[in-house]
Description:
The structure is a homodimer.
Chain A: E1 4-11, H1 22-37, E2 44-48, H2 52-55, H3 61-68, E3 75-80, H4 85-98, E4 105-111, H5 118-126, H6 141-156, H7 164-174, H8 188-192, E5 196-198, E6 201-202, E7 212-220, E8 228-237, H9 252-265, E9 274-276, H10 282-291, H11 300-305, H12 322-326, H13 333-346, E10 359-366, E11 371-378
Parallel strand pairs in A: 2-3, 2-4, 9-10
Antiparallel strand pairs in A: 1-7, 1-8, 4-7, 5-6, 8-11, 10-11
Amino acid sequence: MREVAILGVGQVPVREHWDRSVRHLAADAGRAALLDAGVAQVDGIYVGNMTGGRLNHQRQLGAVVADALGMWGVEAVKMEAACGSAGSAMRQGIIAIASGEMEAVLVIGVEKMTENGFPQTTAALTTAADADYEIEQGVTFVGLNALIMRRYMYEYGYERRDFAPFALNAHANGAKNPNAMFRQPISMETYDNGRIVSDPISLFDASPIGDGAAALLLVPAEKAPRAVRVLGSAVATDTLAVHDREDPLSLKASELSVQRAYAQAGVGPADIDLFELHDAFSVMAALSLEACGFAERGEGVRLAQEGAILPDGRIPICSMGGLKARGHPVGATGLYQIAEATLQLQGRAGAAQIDGVDIAMTQNIGGSGATIVTHILQK
Amino acid sequence: MREVAILGVGQVPVREHWDRSVRHLAADAGRAALLDAGVAQVDGIYVGNMTGGRLNHQRQLGAVVADALGMWGVEAVKMEAACGSAGSAMRQGIIAIASGEMEAVLVIGVEKMTENGFPQTTAALTTAADADYEIEQGVTFVGLNALIMRRYMYEYGYERRDFAPFALNAHANGAKNPNAMFRQPISMETYDNGRIVSDPISLFDASPIGDGAAALLLVPAEKAPRAVRVLGSAVATDTLAVHDREDPLSLKASELSVQRAYAQAGVGPADIDLFELHDAFSVMAALSLEACGFAERGEGVRLAQEGAILPDGRIPICSMGGLKARGHPVGATGLYQIAEATLQLQGRAGAAQIDGVDIAMTQNIGGSGATIVTHILQK
């Protein structure tokens, strides 16, 4: 199979976009990626989206986006894997180019979540979990993650505020990213005063929903020798329900997908200069760091406390705000992560630029770890 | 790219399955396909589904199905293109095998539509159309198709009952298919007495919703020299809204996708022995026949009246009942079509068997023709 390169990047700032529908957000990001790449036409469009059918009353977003971009006729489809939707779209786009089936592919992640009230949005988000065996019990999606965080604290002897470094790092980095939803650093005092959403998760251990879209233009690497290359791309699954797992503190799908991606890329954790992980909740950031080999079991939080996750640390994470501060438009997030990693590799990350990023990794999570998508990129 | 073959077929009868959730239906069909193929493990699962997030409160069906099949860890994702979801999943499964990325892929289309009341189901189906510019006007999805049928009658001088041969053929064929929802032939009198759903569409010019799942097991053709081969696979899009088309009676995406598939297969309309088309509404069957080169513009209905679509006709369609009589579990339909075409090619279609089927074609439509997926198969 051919190597794949990222030739263009497009992003819409994560905001409450009252004047743009889901199609406009997707088309805005798509056009930006096309312009960035200097490409006018593609062979395929892969769209990642989670809640459009419910919150925007619009399905068939592949055709919707092709239509909005004026690319009538082009092959297009939507992928959905809850919050792992955009990472999954990237994976299919890569296969389409690598196979030789397509010469140029546009992948777009989009989500418009703020035009409905919170009860509807919360209900839409629960569909990421197990409808029959988790949600039926009355738990929300945040509630499930609160149970995981509580278990982590109990098992390893942490306090709630031990998780603060994740939020402080994310908000400090988001302040440097014009596309971030929250652009203010926070203090330890602010963190401590965070309103509890679902004990022990406070506002500062949970990412905010938002409207947004991110897009990438993919081509064969042989046609773009100086573009960022995809070294690894892998998806793995785990049980849908957390209670079905032997160990709720082990992200098996993260381990599996990262091992596959490491093997494809011929690299290991020591080679990764930047890790855009899925900090939908602080505890998930800790679990990802552990599953990917950056920390031993139970040491993910300690790694953050030691400063290793900071821009000048051993393994910087969430360099442009992460889900926590850039915002988490669920089905778009996986492509924001890859867009940001690409900009970092190219030295185009502006005020958020980190020095010496040669290899970057992204990890996008669907549900409570049921679908996990890992990508490894090199400049 | 490698040639792809269909090694196994699995179907769940289309019914109101009150005792099975969406995961059970998908797993039942998946297991049947694995058993049929004699394969125990796959590298990837591609699921087609449209309304699960809304009607079953369950998204992330890739992981859901991997979990239900006990295939923890395997790569999995869901594709959605409204009623073209399952055909789109097939297309991605084919690319995954053809590329060399995977050696065995399970594609499953599933839909569970009858556990909600009709208002909810109707609302869920409208998401196939343009939320901002069609549905906002108050039209339903059936209503849009009624406008197209009315225009067809006006433009070409047909009466409503001229469309009857489509329904009569579908019900006669469905009677021979144990997986069909409706298993009784209907008479012209029954057709004439059909209750109007949205004038001029009666119950007998509209397909019924239902619960169902169909699955196929794909492998490289080199590993299964006697299995049914995929000669062509193509997706094309058109404007989402019917009113944006230059000609509402021309299915541009059907023309484009069939031309691509014909070119890949090196065949033309004269070579097709069986055409499993998307008769969600009788008028769509007529438009597909015209777009694919079996009839001139406005002659699709005449072709049916001449008997060409019957099992012993020049171009048999809906050989196992079609959407009309087998039933239309929307996100599963595209794979029921391919499953049925495969059984016909293998001589395993039972009482519905048609003689001399060497090359079969399927066409799966999303929305009012915004996404159209064509597959050409050979025994």
